[in-house]
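User: For a reading group we're discussing how well predicted structures match intuition. Take Leucine-rich repeat protein. Before you show the prediction, I'll give you the sequence so everyone sees exactly what went in.
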Amino acid sequence: VFNSESKMPSFAIFIYLSDPSLGRFDTTTVSQQTLMEHFIQGITNRETICVSADSPADITAWEHLELNADGEVVRVKFQSLGLHGSMSFQYLPSTTQFLSMGGNDLIGSLDLELAPDSIRNINLIYNSFSGSLDFTHLPAQLEELTIYKNSLSGSVDLTRLPPSLQRLNVHNNRFSGSVTLTELPERMLYLNLGSNRFSGRVDLTVLPSRMERLFLHHNGFSGKTDFAQLPDSLRMLNVEGTKLSGTITLPKGTLRVVTFEGSEVEVLRQDHDVGLVK
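Assistant: Thanks. Here is the predicted 3D structure of Leucine-rich repeat protein, as structure tokens, for the group to look at:
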């Protein structure tokens, strides 16, 4: 039996869609309707999205999808819908640019390496995702990844992030181990590693030249740190609740905000009249 739309045997489509171990496949060979139905298949109350769990409505009638002029999925906006269950990223249509599913009760792993390279923004905050996350194979065009307040764990490799990535927020998970901050994307503006289980020393001497906010707070980072080469663009630095030490000198009139309570970091402010003051 052949599927007239995909020009592929229907049993072959079933194999592709039912076996995640096969990894990423060419989603352009399958209708977007079929892909989206399989994307939400693991959500137990999916009727919230597709009207009927047993007989899903056409995706043009899905209230929380945004389609382009060709009827292709561009934005998936399933945030705060009380969703339960899991999802599989390999089924996202290749036209998807924005995925927001925060504020639900979603579980399972985040296999973001299977998400389409077209996706630019992923927001999965306030869920119960667990397991490790491969940061070295994120979607090629990703600009923002926000996954705070989950139960993700394991190490975090920040040395091979997509060059396009500007904002990364992994706050309040269970990530651990050391982190390398010397090979971040040059476009990165915002990085939040706060409230995890990271440890070891941090090198802040070659941060991206445009970085504006860096949060390292409430981790096990330790050791004497060179703060003398922070980029001029940095407006907020939080090392509160770490074991980092060293001295940060703030020029007079600077707009930089440094939060350092509970650490061994000393902050001095430049005053033209009396020199350096605490």
